[in-house]
Amino acid sequence: MSVDGKVERQESAPELAALKSRIQLLEQEQRVACLIEDLRDRFATSPMPAESYLREFPEVFADRSAAVDLIYSEFMLRDSRGHELKTEFLQRFSEYTTELNRQFEVFDALASGFGEFEMQESREPHDLAFCQNQIGGDHFELESLLGEGSFANVFCARDKKLGRQVAIKIARQSLSDHVTMAERFLREAESAAKLVHPGIVSVYEMGGGKTRPWIVQEFVSGGTLRDKVDRQEYSHAEVAAWVGKIADAIDYAHQSGIIHRDIKPANILFDGRGEPKVADFGLAGLAEHESQLTRMGDLVGTPAYMSPEQARGDSVSASSDIYSLGVVLYELLYHQQPFQGTPGSVIEQVIHKDESIPAELKRAVPRDLQTICARAMAKQPSRRYGSAQEMAQDLRRFLAGEPVMARPIGALEKAARWCTNQPVFAMTI
Predict the structure, then answer these.
(1) Cβ 259 vs Cβ 287: under 8 Å
(2) Record's Gene3D superfamilies (predicted)?
């Protein structure tokens, strides 16, 4: 590395040649993971530029997405040391301008932060009377603030015409000033209103247009899954039952052509009987085709629960929701998220790293639940469950004491993962 922090580009890298024999038996995605990990491992002492890997392994990086992952890995490593690199990288890798610009958009979005819905945590002044005026007083009467999120305030209210309690989500003024985000907010109502399922929070009506949109939905009184995760007071059987029912609801949404795209504990509510319900379809996308509101390159969701393809800003599918379900299951089982750190660091780990579970945590979890979780969280969509329903069925098999359909990671894949995490040692074998 030069004095100004730039990685010096070398004409040849003979030390990389030794890697060829070590990765030749691996599958494509495992080769890419090993080479990216090698780049990271060398960074602190003798950094190797991405160009050296592109030149030495042309057959691996003929896949443009793999090449961009490698290039972006170098960018993230150097940016963590405070370097402004976008212009340099666009010049060095001009043939990947489109893909890199998309990655930089993701990077900028991460830098601006993500907000989760937080119960009873005030972020800016709110006025009950002012919000009441926004929705009018003939039909609904706001009673109290339930919580505040990045995009909306949620109130407990009374439906005066039907005599029932409801929840009303009212967009923040800052959101309503942003036309695209206001449209996305209203789309939550449109998406969820299509879904009639006991495991999905019902949407009753909407109003306010694009000036200050609001949504009236079912009032769910039993708290969130986030509350339960934080208290850690539950059994493995309860975990399997909850996630199985959530998976049933998500599968119903998928069958209806809707992908949630932001499954996380804060978006799972519990009713008075202790049954889970999926909420917040504000980031939902149509499975058949992506709306202009969620075109490729947009980063939507919460980093810790994103699938690798979602974290890259690529288009997503029902399989992305299955990955997020796997992360929710992981957190319930192991009492921690699989990847931790700053949003940017989490994104990089989601894309490139395999989760590492401490042995003492692993011993406490039934093997079949470990296997179900690993299957749902596979990096490659093709290795995950084929549907949320398949995952739900495996969880029910576990509850019934029957063998699950998912199988543990095979020996070859374990070796590949070890190579990914220990590239220097792997080269000496």
Answers:
(1) yes
(2) Phosphorylase Kinase, domain 1, Transferase(Phosphotransferase) domain 1
Catalytic residue among 262, 298, 354, 368: 262
Q: State the binding site for ATP.
A: 169
Per 3-state DSSP, the chain is made up of helix, strand and coil in percentages (nearest 5) of 50, 10, 40
Task: Specify binding-site residues.
Answer: 169
Residues 6+ positions from 125 with CB-CB distance below 8 Å: none
Residue 191 pLDDT = 75
Rg (C-alpha) for the chain, rounded Å, is 23
For residue 239 the two structure tokens come to 């975990």
Phi-psi region of 215 (alpha: psi -120 to 50; beta: other; left: phi over 0): beta
Contact status, residue 287 vs residue 237, Cβ threshold 8 Å: no
Highest mean pLDDT among 111-115, 120-124, 172-176, 201-205: 201-205
- Judge whether residue 125 has pLDDT over 50: no
Domain ranges of the chain: 14-112, 118-218, 225-428
Which CATH fold topology does 118-218 show?
Answer: Phosphorylase Kinase; domain 1 (3.30.200)
**Residue carrying the six token digits 């493995």:** 236
pTM higher than 0.85 for the full model?
no
**Which residues, 6 or more positions from 131, have their beta carbon under 8 angstroms from its beta carbon?**
142, 153, 155, 170
Q: Where are the alpha helices (DSSP H) in 335-410?
A: 343-352, 359-363, 367-376, 388-400
Q: Which amino acid is located at 190 in the chain?
A: E
User: Does the domain formed by 225-428 have CATH 1.10.510.10?
Assistant: yes
Residue 199 structure tokens: 């495991």
Is 262 considered catalytic here?
A: yes
Q: 154, 146 in Cβ contact below 8 A? A: yes
